[in-house]
């Protein structure tokens, strides 16, 4: 029988061996050979789980957290979300619990952040925010490392963005970027991640030039590091910005390049996101059959990996594509599923978006009931109620760009109900948000105001709105051609 000392020596050797293994896995996953990293992690998974348990039993929490972080990364890339969430919760539960800021070590910080992100992805956004904010306050009140403060700010900004508060995301993300720049070359990976999140926040605010600048900087850093997965993610983000500015051909090139890399490295999560985004790109161009095919492939993968948020968003996208093809009954089924998932996840932002989309669908039902005035008006009134529901939530969340869409749609609906004053008022509210952003949707807003002016017999105003519409349309055409 081994003595306590001998057992301790053997335990130390075992942990040292598997710290070497996770170093090799991380070099692959976060470098230029992620497929090799995934293969090694798969072979060693059982041993890594044993090493994790052993480290915690011995009180080696920092070493245990390093092993847990590698396992979490592997499970996430493999699309095994429920197992990842179970792992993160286990680590959080088994770490020493302390309220003293001076006793919060690196392992505890990482566990709190990862547990918060896991809660967020399960629909518990407020609890996730509370955990990260509390951690950041403790770190800032103590003599904590600039690295821990920066990465906690990154998580805070990321959660704000994904809850529809891009405005609140900017400050912590910019603070994280400043922190990582000061920490030097070793933090280029985290700097790239922070820039990517900043680009997302700018995009959420309709500030596309700033978004593209941040995204290109992030992608350049990823290329310097040779991290294939991050290169793929950066290409996808740049493509999304180009798509939002209607530069479709440029966006498709980047999406295809990014998806090829995601498949090559075996990252199921990233591949699924690319399928969804490619579907949306085709959707935007009216290529509905191709869009639905990509969406359905994405949903199958989202269901396989247990990503309910991705499934929810894709259900809404399929519904929209079906509605664009006048398949209204099918669209209602998909929107009902999206709404059901949003309620389950307590996702108010997506509840607002689904209400907005259902309002547009009811508008289409009204257009098809044109020969039955009573039925037509009933559909329009239901559409107005849903659009107002979405607007109320979006304004409460201070999500101005998406609220502008609700204002615009209300303008359309009131115009169909012959309430021209309400139609103009709501359309002008949309323009008040879009014009400072020079948003592509301005073309639609100008066109609506032109039609309202013509309905009133005000040809002078109609001509002026038409001039603005045509100028914006010409600008968008130049962008589509890459000019």
From TrEMBL:
UniProt xrefs under Pfam families: TPR_12
Keyword Glycoprotein annotated: no
Start and stop residues of the TPR repeats: 272-305
Keywords for this protein: Repeat, TPR repeat
InterPro entries tied to this protein: TPR-like_helical_dom_sf (IPR011990), TPR_rpt (IPR019734)
Repeat keyword on record: yes
PANTHER family named in the record: NEPHROCYSTIN-3, TETRATRICOPEPTIDE REPEAT PROTEIN (AFU_ORTHOLOGUE AFUA_6G03870)
Name of the molecule in the record: Tetratricopeptide repeat-containing protein
């Amino acid at each position: 029988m081994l003595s306590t000392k001998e057992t301790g020596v053997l335990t130390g050797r075992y942990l040292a061996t598997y710290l070497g293994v996770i170093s090799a896995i991380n070099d692959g996953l976060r470098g230029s050979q992620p497929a090799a990293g995934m293969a090694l992690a798969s072979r060693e998974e059982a041993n890594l789980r044993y090493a994790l348990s052993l480290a915690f039993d011995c009180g080696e929490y920092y070493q245990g957290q390093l092993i847990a972080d590698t396992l979490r990364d592997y499970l996430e890339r493999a699309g095994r979300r429920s197992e990842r969430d179970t792992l993160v919760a286990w680590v959080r539960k088994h770490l020493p619990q302390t309220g003293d800021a001076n006793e919060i070590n690196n392992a505890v910080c990482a566990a709190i952040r990862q547990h918060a992100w896991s809660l967020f992805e399960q629909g518990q956004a407020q609890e996730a925010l509370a955990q990260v904010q509390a951690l950041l306050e403790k770190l800032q009140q103590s003599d904590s490392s600039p690295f821990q403060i920066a990465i906690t700010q990154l998580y805070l900004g990321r959660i704000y963005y994904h809850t529809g508060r891009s405005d609140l995301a900017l400050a912590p993300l910019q603070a994280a970027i400043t922190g990582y720049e000061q920490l030097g070359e070793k933090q280029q990976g985290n700097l790239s991640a922070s820039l990517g999140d900043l680009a997302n926040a700018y995009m959420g605010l309709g500030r596309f030039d700033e978004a593209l600048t941040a995204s290109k900087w992030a992608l350049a850093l990823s290329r310097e590091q040779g991290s294939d997965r991050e290169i793929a993610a950066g290409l996808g983000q740049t493509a999304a910005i180009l798509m939002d500015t209607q530069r479709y051909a440029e966006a498709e090139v980047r999406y295809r390049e990014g998806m090829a890399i995601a498949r090559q490295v075996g990252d199921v999560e990233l591949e699924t996101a690319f399928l969804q985004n490619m579907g949306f790109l085709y959707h935007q161009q009216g290529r509905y059959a191709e869009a639905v095919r990509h969406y359905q492939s994405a949903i199958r993968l989202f269901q396989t990996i247990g990503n309910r948020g991705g499934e929810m968003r894709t259900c809404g996208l399929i519904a929209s594509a079906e509605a664009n093809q006048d398949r209204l009954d099918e669209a209602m089924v998909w929107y009902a599923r999206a709404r059901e998932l949003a309620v389950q996840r307590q996702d108010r932002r997506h509840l607002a978006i689904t209400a907005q989309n259902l309002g547009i669908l009811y508008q289409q039902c009204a257009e098809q009931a044109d020969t039955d005035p009573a039925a037509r008006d009933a559909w329009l009134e239901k559409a107005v109620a849903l659009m107002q529901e979405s607007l109320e939530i979006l304004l409460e969340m201070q999500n101005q760009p998406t609220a502008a869409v609700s204002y615009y749609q209300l303008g359309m609906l009131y115009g169909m109900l012959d309430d021209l004053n309400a139609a103009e008022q709501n359309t002008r509210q949309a323009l008040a948000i879009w014009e400072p952003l020079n948003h592509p949707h301005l073309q639609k807003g100008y066109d609506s105001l032109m039609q309202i002016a013509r309905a009133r017999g005000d040809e002078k105003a109609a001509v002026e709105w038409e001039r603005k519409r045509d100028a914006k349309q010409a600008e968008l055409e130049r962008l589509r051609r890459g000019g």
